[in-house]
Fold this protein.
Amino acid sequence: AAKTDCWKGVFALEGLPALAVVLLGLRLPESPVWLRRKVKVESEGERRNESSSLPVSSASTLLQRRYVVPFVLALVILVCNQTTGINAVLGYSVTIFQTAGLSGSFANAADAFFKLAMLVMTAVACVLVDCRGRRFLLQVGTLGVIGSMLAAGILMLGIRLGWYPAGTVTGWLLAGLLSVFISAFAVGPGVCVWLALTELMPTRIRANGMAIALFMNQLVACGLASSFRPWVEAWGWSSMFFFFAANGVLYFIVACFIPETKGKSLAELETLFERK
């Protein structure tokens, strides 16, 4: 009964920021691009038929050659953001620490430290993102994800195969590795991906392109959430960590192809893709 009440309290508290989003969303202004298009359509509508005055829809231009590269880059990095395992690790962190050998209270303490590391490194990324650039931080972050996930996979594989028992040492060691993972994710993909997406997407395709990319992001998240527990029960935690590390390698490769957007206007970035 106490656990049930605690869960009710957790969900109730999560409703407060959701309510704040709804209330603040009522005061959210439309984007300048949308307003400019709306004014353009209305002014042209005075001179010609409305059907002929509408600008070319982003759906009709999304697959034009000059838009394919930024759209595909945005799609891939948003999918990779999920396949690095961020939501799975955040959601099951206490269970993972307990499996590695920590008791319930210590596992919760490790979880608090783990998420504090994410908060601190997100603040660090906010300072560095305009100094070092998006691509650099994405590369550093994905390298950190790869290394920490490989190490965590080896540690959990050793416990699974009986090389050493799960205990306090292995539990805190795993907590440290996952703190490195969450710090690397926060300083790179956690912050930079959202900036890079909005800057990469040309104005004309941004609305539909972002909608499709975010849909794929959530589709992959749904697939991982539904398959995570059966996978772990069948193959162990180490297999998931190795899978996340492999996706981190893919993410790093894609990050190398992302053009640096630091200090460049949106018009300059659109011209870059048109030239290529």
